[in-house]
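Input/output pair, single chain:
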Amino acid sequence: MLAQPEKPRDHTVIHPSELCKTDFCARASYYTITQGPKRDKAGFRLQNIYDEGHYIHAKWQNRLRDMGILYGMWYCQSCKLAYTGIGSSCPDCGSLLIDYREVSVYDRDLMISGHTDGWVKDDQGNVLIEIKSIGIGTIRFEEPSLLYSHATLDDAWANIRRPFSTHIRQGQLYLEMLRRMKEKGIYDEVPEEIVFIYEKKSDQAVKEFTVRANPATVKPMLDKAYDIARAVRITKVAPECSNDPINGCKACKVYE
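Output:
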């Protein structure tokens, strides 16, 4: 497993999954775009965690596909057709061997690009889908207050009553990117809500939350993206560190 090459990840754009984090550093992002990433390859245990998350995503996406309500980008393994629509079978050759490539969201002007886990369209309307696998590490990082003295994972899980703030910001970015894509004529209609599916890793318990679009939420993140894009394309000068303008943070200091 460790001998396999890392899957390519575009380092020339700003990913919503990184931009939404509270410790996101505009300076580090500038250097990543202009110089390439500086990070170690995932170790065995961390790669196992990543893979488990992918399996959980695929499980839910396959269920939605079987219901005939999963919209997005598809790739046919048989005739190599790439197309956008509701997944069921290949529209050209009829093959059922189609892979879901999720939903691209982007804003070229701001250099933001990413993928959301799914887009559901049915007779009730349409919503984005984000699937999150939740373990003790997720809670410790996203909402440590849930792990009060002697709290177990079950205790913390029972007290999750809304999506974590990082996830909300990420979802809002996806909704805003799609809204902008609609303004440019890429889509005729776009969702105004995103549904978060949380699955607990230890026993597959599930929670579901729905969040409506709130453009005000994304403005601080878009301001950072604007500063980075301007620095990359125009000034060629790295913006200041978002976390510690004087001393820098661990993310940007590795480029010194």
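Helices lie at 16-19, 26-35, 44-66, 136-142, 153-158, 165-183, 215-235, 250-253. Residues 103-229 form one domain.
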